[in-house]
Structures are given as structure tokens and as C-alpha cells.
Predict the structure.
Amino acid sequence: MTGVSTAPPAGHAPRRPGNRKLDQWITFWSVPFFFNVFGLVFVPLSWMMPPRSPSAPTSQIVAFMQSHNLLIACVLLTLTFGLAPVSNAVYLMQIKRMSVSPAFRYTLMMGAITGAIVGMLFPMFCFGVGAFRPGYSPAVLSMLYDFGYLAFIGSLGCFCVMWMAFGLAILLDKNNVLPKWLGYYTVWQYMTELMAAPVWINKSGPFAWNGLMTFWFTVVLYVSWQMVVYTCIYRSIKRQPEDELDNADLHTATGDPRAGANA
């Protein structure tokens, strides 16, 4: 039997194969960029984080809420907010490869949307509005201060549903896209985010919004978990067979040199 040539017509240069996982790598590398900008805005630029005390004196609240740096921070958040859905797509792409219901993807997507609106947009508007116009009364600034921090810290419960869907998808998946132990780790991690609930009734102590358990313990667990998750996702993307990719048929149809078949 003779081979069937897939060489391009004379006078046409062969199509150079591109990176067929480029979309996944874009979403993957958007994550460290987004979190670095996020950290820059919330820590050294505005000092919104670590959280200030809910029982801070009114004079300190007023001085903080009228800081010009808050406006610069809000500008940067406005410019980078669009990276949130891009970075969350890295989870959605992995769940799509799993042998689970699409409901897990939709649940993660809606949890991410809800968490981003409440946990990022609301605080941005609260702190930004307080700094936008001088002359607000201390009572108004105190209300915006409380609203901003309660939205940021108290919204962690929104992410519980998101990470629950991710963890359960890993555990139920039969394709072994991600290791099973990561599913158990994820389930354990999202349960700790329920510790954010007491911030609504505590103004001091370990369960206030700046407390040892509610903030510091949760942050340490979350950051370490995120590093593990992205290491696993990086390995998963690297080892994904190219015939699994959504654009595999597209490259075959457009004359990918690697798509030749020998009969």
C-alpha cells in the first residue's frame, strides 16, 4: 500500500505548527500576574491588607479612608479585574477534561463570579468612594470602611461552593486528570473558608475580620493550597495528549504537517 501525501501544493510554504495549548498557557500564566498585581494593590500601595482592626478609632478610619493611595489602588484594580475570569478558566479547562457532569463547571463558574463581585468589586467601590471626595462625615466613612472589609473577608463563603465543585470533580473523575489526593486537600481547604462567617458578629479576637483564625490561618492555608493546585495543573497541561485538545480537529483540517496519515 502506498502512503498518502499531505504535502501542501507547490508554491505554498508548509504551515508551521503552533503551540496548540496556547490558550491553556495564557490562562495559567495569567494567574501569577493577576495575584501579583492584586497583592501590590492591597498591601504596599494601599495597605488595605493585612486588614485593619474593626474596632479602630474613628480618627484612624477617617485618615485611612481618605488616603489618595486608595484611588490609585482602585484604578489598578479596574484595569486588572478582567483577568479574574481569565485566571479562573484554568480550572474550567481541567474540569472539562474530567468524566463528570458539566454542572461542576457551571457551579465553579457561578461561584467565581459571585465571589469576584462581592469580594473584589464591592470593596473597591467602598474604599474608592470614601477617598474620591473629601468632606464625607466620619459616620459615612466608618460605614464604607465596615462595608469594604466585611465584603472582602466575609465573602469567603461564596468561594466554598466554587472549591467544593472543584474538589468533588477531582474525586469523581475517572480520567485521573488531577490526583485524587488533591481533591481531598481541596475539600479540606474550602471547609476552612467557612471560618469567615463569624466576622459578622465579632469586632475583636481571633474571629474578627483581622483575627488569627478568620484571616491569618485561612490565608496561610489558602496560599499553600494554591501553590500545590497550580503545580498539579501545570503538570496536567504538560502531559495532556494533543488529540484531546479542542483544536485538534481544526489543525487537522487546516493542514497541520503532523496530521499526515499513512495507509
Remarks:
- Residues 251 and 259 are 8 Å apart (CA to CA).
